[in-house]
Every structure is written in structure tokens, then in C-alpha cells.
Specification:
The protein has four helices and 14 strands. With about 350 residues, it is an alpha+beta fold. The chain has one domain. α2 packs across α4.
């Protein structure tokens, strides 16, 4: 007689909870995604804390976004290392600072908090003049309640992101698929929109609402999420959603005494990119693998590290381009929302 199957376990080693009341049994794929989600929260929380503690100590280098955007902005990258779960890892990332505009009228702090926590992700999409979708759209799937029960949203409730104010009181976390509509590859004069999506998981550890965080600001409202290390669909990229390792995206909206809004966006991934292109387990990356070949052929005159740094910086710049496009579009949404909610 065979032994009963062991229950799926979360990263803390505890068996996964039973489904929420009224839910059917969780599938094997559901349990796999729950485990990967909780690993992402555990590891991403460490990466987010490292950033908040070490930001001022990092050596930043400028990133060239290759075009003029509507909103004033500065983008910078960094390479460093950190410890996650007791193991040392390299890390790469970028910080963008965007002058987002002003918040007119009274109750600026209250309205900024309402927008970031309740409206930002809901409204972060639009249609471009050529008819293509812009910004980000979200779908909810699995969740863990504040009471520790797991479940999945029915089909009719999946469209759109959660309200971040429900985290902690109703949900411990909610797994989302974010569809990124402005991921554009440029090859000379040609541009091509590439289908891109990621699994991300909003969690209370990534929410920070801080009054007077520094002499320059009256309020910080920050949200963010770790990326789940599973790609939503196959792709040839060696570094991207589902292939980052441990990664986080953070959005901080900062209110100045003059009622100006500054947005700081941060992306960090550990380890640094291992591949540029991914053609499968048994085929080397032609870029980083080719750099190693050149090192041998030139007796060390070609330095793979320099090629690696350059390519990693280019990947960070592409990430910044996508998110600067997001901010340019969101600013119009923001102006419409503040006008309707004086």
C-alpha cells in the first residue's frame, strides 16, 4: 500500500492551508503557484528592505533612455550584492525620479493616499492614438486571506487589480498577472511591440504610508510587489518576467510642501542577468557566452565583465523606458482624476 501524498508546504515548512469555504480543491498547479508566490514574498521582502536601508550608499550611474519624454525625469542604475536567506547574491537595478505635477485644492495628503492605494493600478491603462493599448492591465487569480485560507477568484471577478487597502484586513496577498502594453523593441528604424506579462503579488510588506519622511516631503505613499519566478508564457528572453530570480518593483509617490508630486520608481533583481537570450537548457546564451569565447580568443584582451555591464545597463534602460512611458500616460489620468475629485 502506497503512502499518502505529502501536502504542499509553504516556504516556512507548514502545510498549505485548506481552500476557503465554498472553494473547490486546489489543483497541483494552484499549489505550485502558491508555493512560488510565498517564496517570492519571502525573498522579495528581503530585497525591498535592503533597498530601503542601502539606497543612500549605492553607487549610481546614469541610464540613457534614448528619447525625450513629456515629464521631466532622471534614471540611474546600480550593481551591488546582498544576502538573501543567508546566501550572497549579486543585484542589479534602477531608480527613476519623475516630476509628476501638482495636486490642486485642499486635502492633498488624503487625496494622494486615495489615488495611490485605490486608483493608480485601476487606471494605469489607456488607448494610444494608433489604437494600441498602453500602460498596464491586471488580472487577479489566487489569493490568501488574512485568516490564512487559500482560494482563487471566480472568472467574473478576475479583471482588474485589488484595492491595496484590502491587503492585511481581507487578504494576506493576491496573485496578479500584469500585462505590460508598452514593451517596445527598437531595431534601427523599426519598432515592434512585444507581448509581455509577469506574475506579481501585492503584499502588505510593500506598502508604506509615512508622514514627513524627510525635510523635503510631507508624505510618502509607496506600493510595490515582488515578481513570481514563473513566466506566464514561454519567451526567448534570458532576463525578464519569470526569469529575474528574486525581483521587486516599487512605486513611491512623494508630496512636497508646495503640493508637488514626485514619483520614485525602483526595480531590483538578484542575481544580475545570467543570459540575454534563452534558447533552452542546453544552448548557451550567444551574448554572454560569446563574450567568454572572445576572452579566450583574444587571450584576455576582451573583458566579459565590461560586456556584461554594458548589456545589463541596456536592459535596465529598457525597463526604465517602459515605466517612463507609464508615467507619461498616467499623468493625464491623474489630472482627470484630481479634476473630478477636488
Amino acid at each position: 500500500m502506497s503512502a499518502p501524498a505529502s501536502p504542499a508546504r509553504n516556504p516556512a515548512g507548514d502545510p498549505l492551508a485548506e481552500p476557503s469555504p465554498g472553494q473547490g480543491p486546489l489543483s497541483g498547479q494552484d499549489r505550485f503557484m502558491i508555493q512560488k508566490t510565498e517564496e517570492a514574498i519571502r525573498d522579495g521582502s528581503q530585497l525591498e528592505r535592503w533597498w530601503r536601508e542601502r539606497e543612500g550608499d549605492l553607487a549610481l550611474f546614469p541610464l540613457d533612455l534614448k528619447k525625450q519624454y513629456r515629464l521631466p525625469n532622471k534614471a540611474a542604475g546600480f550593481f551591488s550584492s546582498l544576502s538573501i536567506n543567508g546566501s550572497s547574491r549579486t543585484v542589479m537595478g534602477c531608480r527613476q525620479v519623475v516630476e509628476f505635477g501638482r495636486i490642486p485644492g485642499a486635502k492633498a495628503s488624503e487625496r494622494l493616499r486615495d489615488f495611490v492605494l485605490g486608483e493608480f493600478m485601476q487606471r494605469a491603462h489607456w488607448t494610444h492614438e494608433d489604437g494600441t493599448l498602453g500602460g498596464f492591465t491586471f488580472e487577479k487569480s489566487l489569493y490568501k486571506t488574512a485568516a490564512g485560507q487559500y482560494g482563487q477568484f471566480p472568472a467574473e471577478q478576475r479583471d482588474g487589480p485589488l484595492d491595496w487597502r484590502d491587503l492585511g484586513r481581507q487578504y494576506a496577498w493576491v496573485l496578479h498577472t500584469v500585462h505590460i502594453h508598452d514593451f517596445v523593441a527598437t531595431m534601427g528604424p523599426f519598432k515592434k511591440r512585444i507581448r509581455e506579462a509577469a506574475y506579481v503579488v501585492p503584499h502588505p510588506d510593500f506598502i508604506h504610508v509615512v508622514e514627513n519622511p524627510s525635510p523635503d516631503y510631507l508624505l510618502e505613499v509607496s506600493i510595490g510587489y515582488p515578481f513570481v519566478d514563473v513566466p506566464p508564457f514561454p519567451n526567448i528572453f534570458g532576463f525578464g518576467p519569470g526569469k529575474f530570480g528574486v525581483a521587486v518593483k516599487l512605486f513611491s509617490f512623494l508630496l512636497t510642501p508646495k503640493n508637488e508630486i514626485r514619483v520614485r520608481m525602483v526595480f531590483a533583481a538578484a542575481p544580475r542577468a545570467q543570459k540575454v537570450l534563452d534558447f533552452g537548457k542546453y544552448l548557451p546564451d550567444p551574448v554572454y557566452g560569446g563574450a567568454e569565447v572572445l576572452r579566450y580568443l583574444t587571450l584576455g584582451l576582451v573583458k566579459p565583465e565590461a560586456i556584461h555591464d554594458r548589456m545589463d545597463a541596456q536592459m535596465l534602460a529598457l525597463h526604465c523606458q517602459v515605466h517612463q512611458t507609464l508615467m507619461d500616460g498616467l499623468e493625464k489620468v491623474w489630472n482627470a482624476w484630481t479634476g473630478a475629485n477636488p
